[in-house]
Amino acid sequence: MIIKKRYGLLLLLFALMQFDVHGQQKPAIATAKKISPDLFGIFFEDLSYAADGGLYAELVQNRSFEYSPADNRDWNSLTAWKYQTDGFGYGTISVETAKPIHPNNSHYILLNIDDAGQKGVGLENSGFDGIPVQAGKYYNFSVFLNVLSPQALPVSVSLIDKKGKELGTASFTASQKGWNKYSEKIKVNFDEDSAKLVLLVKSTGKIGIDMVSLFPAETFKGHENGMRADLAQTIAAVKPKFMRFPGGCLVHGDGVANIYRWKNTIGPLEQRVEQRDIWNYHQSVGLGYYEYFRFCEDIGAKPVPVLAAGVSCQNSGGTWKIGSTGQKGIPMEEMGAYIQDILDLIEYANGPVSSTWGAKRAAAGHPAPFNLEYLGIGNEDKITGLFEERFRLIYDAVRKAHPEIRIIGTVGPSPAGDDFENGWKLADLLSVGIVDEHYYEKPEWFLKNTHRYDHYNRLHSKVYIGEYASWGNTLFNAVSEAVYMTNLERNGDVVQMASYAPLIARIGHTSWNPNLIYFNGKQVFPTVNYYVQQQFAVNSGSEYLPAVMSFKDKALTDSIAGASCVRDAATGDIILKIANAGPASLSGTADLSKLGKLSKSAAITVITGDPKATNTIAHPTAIVPKTIPITLKKHWDFTVPAYSLTVVRIKGYRVSKSQ
Ligand code: AHR
Fold first, then answer.
1. Of residues 291, 380, 467, 489, which has the active-site annotation?
2. Is residue 66 in contact with ligand 1, taking CB distance under 6 Å?
3. Residue 321's pLDDT is what?
4. Measured between alpha carbons, how far is 382 from 76 in angstroms, rounded to an integer?
5. Region of residue 173 (phi > 0: left; psi between -120 and 50: alpha; otherwise: beta)
6. Torsions phi, psi of 505, nearest 5?
7. pLDDT tens digit string along 344-386?
């Protein structure tokens, strides 16, 4: 009993030492502080054509004829398609739904060729703003056909340029009754930014056509149904510690029927359930949960799926107003099945191949588990009774069945306000391990709030800053974010994860600005913000070393600058970061004298320039990082330029375990 009392007193003393009278933690003491190993990651949402027409390498738009006015009021099954009778053939074309490939994929084209003319009769697809192809490269074409006439039908598939010149072609004969897949490799002989794909049936007959697909043979890591290589490489080069997917608002959807259901997105492509994208276009879900997990693995990022908390977006039905309550809940009698889907997802990711869902993962080509560790429940939802009732059910069920999974709760769309307060209250009440904070603010907000996490209670939930960005892609925006990020490192014991949002956007189809990476069909344009994110992720540390960095004028620098010193335990390297969002150069000192044995030579990387500059199509490399070697002393007196991020990586020596 006495021992227990003493132990209790010690705990109390310890708590008093750590926290001030308001229960806030006292400022950091001068010892190394552990940083979350998952601090800097990425946020992927299928908005601004991030998936279809973006990372997903499919070049045919509306391949399954499932576009509809529900996606976009100007769209239908023939969007991006044209009936092709250039060779003076004739017949009829119709969109049919009887006897489709699969009930989930109900629309297809029925072609009745009365006269094939000189070239044949068929269909032409214009891709996503045209199909970019390269001379000497191969493209994998496939289609599902159902021959409905007694005779076999000769078919050609070609890529043509704007003037109709053939860039590459293949021919085959469709002979099978019932739906069958035909695949061809097409070699392209000329470069073209805006090709079209033409499928022609060359003799009289009747045929059903669906799932017309064209992929570059060279996808990221060479996967079938893979990712666009240049875009994927640009993302991979960030070296994110985790990737959140598939959103964002996409997750909780526009109404209950639009909630993202992961099970609809796995299995054979022709059997997946396509659906309207909340950002007013269409999700083919060719990039589905299996592909998301595989992509995370390919880029060395932990998967962080986020699932709806049983409620739809509060802005459902077009009510895009702060505080609007378009939020709808999955009927309570259906919540059991919904929760089972969530538990099944964990089994799909981590279960043995002998389990029902682990077997499906293995059948898709991945017998090894995907090592799911984190699971987000809810996305910036309005914290209502409707939400809370469903969140609790999901939370309890996941905790009970999978205590090893780290659940991420949600605290609204803003860094303060009712949903933020109420979300945190609920998280405290339920002891949710991590909560997801979101904020899109002016750069000045980031500079004013650098101490936001210094006083967070370390005994409460950890924080995942699931979405954040300053409003813009200028150098000033990017360095303001950098200043803020040095403070995230200092608070890397309470900020578990952070991801800039959104990640990628197709030029001409942006539903949201700014983004980290822009692209068109052919090129990828990393923003200045991208290079800042990359510097922090590539140079992340496992512990924060206080009292190493100091500015000459502390009072002046606090509101415009930030500096951090971290050690990466894996390499022993020391990394210094100095971010200056102010209009003048700044000086200070890095005291490396107590950091043990370090190499004198280091690499210094600087991002700087005109604060208003952005990387654009015309000037894609206006601001990029520049790295040079430097020699350092134990006391390094630095001067960094105005509007800059400076990162110094010093080769260290790994401390062996026995030391
Ligand atoms: O990142 C864009 C959107 O911003 C996300 O979908 C949503 O969660 C947030 O409001």
1. 380
2. no
3. 56
4. 33
5. beta
6. -150, 135
7. 999 999 999 999 999 999 999 999 999 999 999 999 999 999 9
Q: Is the minimum distance from the CB of 502 to ligand 1 under 6 angstroms?
A: yes
pLDDT in tens, 298-314: 999 999 999 999 999 99
pTM of the entire predicted model: 0.94
Domain boundaries, the chain: 21-38+544-652, 81-216
If we measure between CA atoms, which residue out of 125, 86, 92, 128 comes closest to residue 110? 92
Compute the distance between CA of residue 496 and CA of residue 251 in angstroms, rounded to an integer: 22
- Residue 391 sits at φ, ψ, to 5 deg, of -60, -45
Domain 21-38+544-652 in CATH: superfamily? Golgi alpha-mannosidase II (2.60.40.1180)
Average pLDDT value over all residues in the chain: 93
Other Cβ atoms closer than 10 A to 334: 12
380 catalytic? Reply is: yes
| Residue at 464: amino acid letter | Y
Tell which atom from ligand 1 comes closest to the C-alpha of 413.
10
CATH topology for 81-216 is Jelly Rolls (2.60.120)
Distance 521 CA to ligand 1 centre (A): 24
Task: Give me the helix-helix angle, 332-350 and 385-401, nearest 10°.
Answer: 40
CA distance 432 to 409: 6
Q: Is the CB of 249 under 6 A from ligand 1?
A: yes
Q: Which run of H or of E encompasses 543?
A: strand 543-544
Three-state DSSP at 551 gives: strand
320 has a pLDDT exceeding 80:
no
Between CA 378 and CA 430 the distance in angstroms is: 15
Best residue among 324, 465, 511, 512 to mutate for probing ligand 1, ranked by most atoms within 8 Å of CB: 512
Angle subtended at Cα 312 by Cα 307 and Cα 315, rounded to the nearest 5 degrees: 125
Helix, strand or coil for residue 504?
strand
Q: Which atom of ligand 1 is nearest to the CA of 467?
A: 1
Exposed, middle or buried by CB within 10 Å (0-12, 13-18, 19+), for 125? Answer: buried
At 133-189, the pLDDT tens digits run 999 999 999 999 999 999 999 999 999 999 999 999 999 999 999 999 999 999 999
pLDDT of residue 409: 98
